[in-house]
Amino acid sequence: MSVNTSFGRHAWALRCRFDRDTDPSDASASPASSASPSPRLRPGIAALIDAFRQHGHRHARLDPLVGAPVVPRDGVNADGGGNGVDGVADAFDLQRFGLTAADAVAHDGDTVFGATEAGALQRRLSALYCGALALDLSAVRDESRRAWWIARFESEDGPLSGDAARALLRRLARVEGWERYLAKRFPHGKRFSLEGNEALLPLLDTLLEAGAARGVDQVMMGMPHRGRVNVLANLMGHPVDALIDYFEPAPAHPERQRDLVYHLGGTSRVQTTHGAVRLRLASNPSHLQSVYPVVVGMARAARTAAGDRPARCMAVVMHGDAAFAGQGVVMETLALGLKPGYEVGGVIHVVINNQLGFTEPNPMDAASARYCTDATRGVDAPVLRVHADDPEAVLRAARLAVDYRARFGTDVVIDLVGYRRLGHSEHDVPQLTSPALYRRMPAKAGVTALYAERLMAERRVCDDEVAAIAAEVDAFDPASPLDSAAPMMDDATATPGKRAPLGDLHDVLEALAQLPEDFEPHALLRDQAGRWRGMADDARRPADWCTAETLAWAQVLRAGVGVRISGLDVQRGTFLHRQAVWHHQGRAVDGASLPASGTLSTWTPLSRFACEGARLEVVNSLLAEEAVLGFEYGHSVQAREVMTVWEAQFGDFVNGAQVYLDQYLSSGEEKWGDTSALTVLLPHGYEGVGPEHSNGFLARLLQLCGADNLRVAMPSTSGQYAALLQRQALDPVRKPLIVMTPKAVLLNEPRSHTPIGVLAAGGFVPVLDDDTVDAARAQRVRRVVLSSGKVHYDLLSARQAMAGSLSDPMAGATALVRVEQLYPFPREALATVLQRYPLVEEIVWTQEETRNQGPWHFVRDDLEALLPDGARLREVSRAVTAAGATASPVIHRWQQAALVRQVFLT
Predict the structure, then answer these.
(1) CATH number of the structural domain spanning residue 709
(2) CB of 844 within 8 A of CB of 876?
(3) What is the spatial distance between Cα 136 and Cα 589, in angstroms, rounded to a whole number?
(4) pLDDT given at position 878
(5) Taking all residues of the chain, what is their mean pLDDT, rounded to a whole number?
(6) Tens of pLDDT, residues 514-552
(7) Whether residue 725 sits in one domain with residue 795
(8) What is the C-alpha to C-alpha distance for residues 785 and 837, in angstroms, rounded to an integer?
């Protein structure tokens, strides 16, 4: 690509206030450098140029529905006349800059942008900055990036060659022809047509081609429903007959249709001139922007797997204009991309801008915001706004976006300004709410016809060539594959089938306790290291929850499976329960902890077990749930050799990410075949701290369970927790795991800490029998109490206190059994345990949650099916309440004591 020589000679002088302190002799500082001296510009010329650069996008001719002609970039119409500046006359009136049209641009008669007079320069700048492609740098604060954009945007690009123009015309015709074919064959089929933004497909082609030229060989892509069927057919290479089957009134394979066709994704191999690119289109539900963090999580996993070549993967996300401006997950995900541990080298955003949100107008100059892309201002993203009916401008926007992302590794936005020919869907009657707009629609020519007319006018194609392309499209045969990508199998990394070496914890504990030289940990963590050394030599010592979890991760890493833990404060843990990352506590200067020269500022004990094939990431997230959980779900789908974990600060915070539980985690495999082994840790337990942080919405989560889709557990010991994590990491059957994890009380309950020797030898047990009841005493048991979680220890203390007293003669005849796994419900394991108690008269399900917010309604059918003959089933819980828990510690203690007493009533 050549650089405009006029601008190159005067680059520094024309930068105006972009960089007033730049030395003109510093060639690297200029958008386009030259050793030639700067011209003596006439006063006002530099300000005029600067005004176009800053504000040209506000006056660009971008709306295909306005009817104004698309302005060629050279400032000359096809008929050879000047294009005029009617649309920008007021904003860039020469008088505002102290100029007239005949004024020379430079005192020495030199040219700027090929113009010698101010009037000609104004027309050139209008064509450049106010035409079919506009550059919005209003959010970009970095001077080097602004300079790069100015240099690239003002450089020569030229029209496409005849062959390239014909190929583009043929591509547009096929995209448009596919929509016409579906509309004619299935007039009542809902497909969310791309009509009005057909240039999206050539845009995506160019992103892949330009990306491959930059070394990209893998692209993660997400999009809403509009245009998805076209993308599946014309880009992804999805079998046409399979797509058409979704529209048939009597489909040949209804069993395959587990979700709507415009929700489907897939994986393809696209051949470019620079090599093959693996393209993954993420499946998604109708929650429009929810796929955005999912795609970014997939891209992060692919970049991590690429090792020292992370730039090989590129993320492309398409958005609807209204949803992009309105959905909060957009802001969360944009901000997430700025944090270490979540970067993906920049996302290319493509806004499919229909200028409508369902029935609500979304004009570019609405009172609430000038643009639907204003959300990206927070991440300093440049925006390329492009007329969707100018396909060559669209292609240029795509190339610029790829180049910028490759150069700076940050987000960039393409605002593809088009329209929606048929309303929100094919069933819509858009005239009801937008009568003036849709009165004009029947007469609106499509992009293919407009581009063909332009090419013929410019003599780049002839009538016969256009007719031949049209005939080719009209002859479309749905039985023949389209000329597009080849579908391929899922390219996610392989499923683990490994096993951790169990029983060998001595060396692990010794390694964990060994500190780097000169590293000074906090006193609490120094004590922890000392306890680890003691445990290495004495298998009888109990392992608290922190130790048990750390040992589980160590064993998983040793087995060759990576570990990624993400969430708010996960490096330390909300309850100081993890301490995965230790901070050097060296001499403080001005409030900052300064390690000695050569000393680490942080230390992660588990890093001793990580390696190239089993990476460790413990990443503190933003104070957000929705985008983070979506990100980690995407990561887990893509990275099968990694145990991906998301932990909520408190369990109830998961309600801020409910869409990912309902639409992705619980049903993604059944709908789309996307398997995930994401582990979700939700601190849960009633401790008198109020409604918000007591309940992790366990009942709601259990309602999502069915068809073996999830695993839900509430372990009561540190050993069970560690075994559960290991099982999840190493099980070749990939299912999401939701763990109701302990909070302060259970974490600090000594009876829940498993001895090291037991921890080393044991696996996860879904039902824990009462180990205080031997075979002889089991024959006298009349009551079996079932519970999950920390309430077991309250029951244990109460039974010990009541044993032998008159308060409950049956206390000594009561067995306390823990149901550690709630789904899949362990029927067989529980039945085996109950067989030990042949004379049982009563089974009591006990939960500290309220009756409506615990497991009772979910487990009741299973318990009734297991009820021995002659035995009754009883439930004990807190009373039904809307809030879920009291905020009074006094009332909490009273409720807990009353609950336990009720269990032991005869």
Answers:
(1) 3.40.50.12470
(2) yes
(3) 44
(4) 94
(5) 86
(6) 998 888 999 999 999 999 999 998 889 999 999 999 999
(7) no
(8) 12
